[in-house]
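dude i think i finally got it to work??
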Amino acid sequence: MEVKPYPLFEKISIECNSFCNRTCSFCTRTSDNRIKARMPEELVYKVLDELAEIKYSGLIAFHFYNEVFTDKRIFSFFQRCKDLGLNNYLVTNGDFLTKDTVEKLSIYNIKEFALSVYDWESEEDFQLKVNEFESILGLKTHPWDFYVVKGGGEDFSNRAGYVDFKQEEYTFPIKAACSKIENKLDIRYDGTVVMCCIDYYGLHSIGRIQDEHIIDIWYGEKRQKQINDLRQGLRENYKLCSKCSDYIVNV
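look at this
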């Protein structure tokens, strides 16, 4: 049996479309007029079929820098995952959620539900908004792990220099190891498999799902080099990594 150089990714994000209804100051999309496009269904299904083929047991999402509920096909994607025995996680800004939508989501294989809460002015205001979401929509009453992401909070990174958020806190280039890319895979709406979720433009692409099997991309030479380099703290080999404050692991 062939020994793999590292484990399979625990999560994968397939960006089903390119649109988000918000422009947040801490998000890379704010500085870019992104085209509105959708990943073709056959390309989404290609990746799902490849994951089912290997009996993938991790979690699949349909977001990257988009809001999933701007794509009306999202429920058909969740259904396809259910039919194939695949599990999902969901990240949403909550703007399109209704009680009926949440009830509909509960029939699928969604194991994690992450709600990003924005537009809060104080800790008290943030908690009020969270409580409102939870009580009106019943988000804690379903069999998924529910958690809240505090949009714009101190835990957000500098997006590898793409935004001004928190830039003053760091000295560049950053020299440290990083394990962020070892357990997750991100795919843009155009099929580009990127280095990590910070790689908005696909600057350090490792392949295209149109051209290769998703597992061959994950264990390909480009990904192996990226992982080996970052384990050694060789961030200077990558333009984004040398300026990124996200998921730093000390050498």
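The mean pLDDT is 88.
im so relieved honestly
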